[in-house]
Amino acid sequence: MSAVPRFEKPHKADRPSGRFRRMLDRLSSSQEDLEREELAEDSQASGCTRISECTDRQIVKVTGTLRTVTLRPRAGVPALEAELFDGTAPLDVVWLGRRSIVGIEPGRKLIASGRIAMSHGRRVLFNPKYELRPLGKE
Asked: How far is CA 80 from CA 83, 84, 126, in A?
């Protein structure tokens, strides 16, 4: 070992947070990172719980963007499944007994509320109350 100090890259929290630094961070970030950050900020601004903070059996109100929507029967009963993402973690939203719901499509933003369940290590929200976000806000 040498007595010469090593220079380490400062953590993001240690960096200056000026306007120039934020602009530089945005220019060097990928599109996916920017979308993730925007979704997380939107979730926090709307007063909803972040999906990453949701625990089993907790009643929550979450918001995000639908990534995928699929029809996947469960025990012979039709079930419409969608993956909701808020920038922090994914959440499976399942409507039992439904083959389709008008407005539930990939890329659509919505607010959902209900009780979180854990299934195969993933967070799931069955038959939630939901509100589609206006298309003009997307």
From this structure: 10, 13, 10
Model confidence pLDDT, tens digit, residues 32-52: 777 777 777 777 778 899 999
> For the purposes of burial, counting CB atoms within 10 Å of the CB of 108, is it exposed (0-12), middle (13-18) or buried (19 or more)?
middle
Which helix (H) or strand (E) segment is 25 a member of? helix 19-28
With contact defined as beta carbons under 8 Å apart, do 128 and 117 qualify? no
pTM value > 0.70? yes
- DSSP, collapsed to helix, strand or coil, labels residue 137 as helix
DSSP letter string over 31-48? HHHHHHHHHHHHHHHTTP
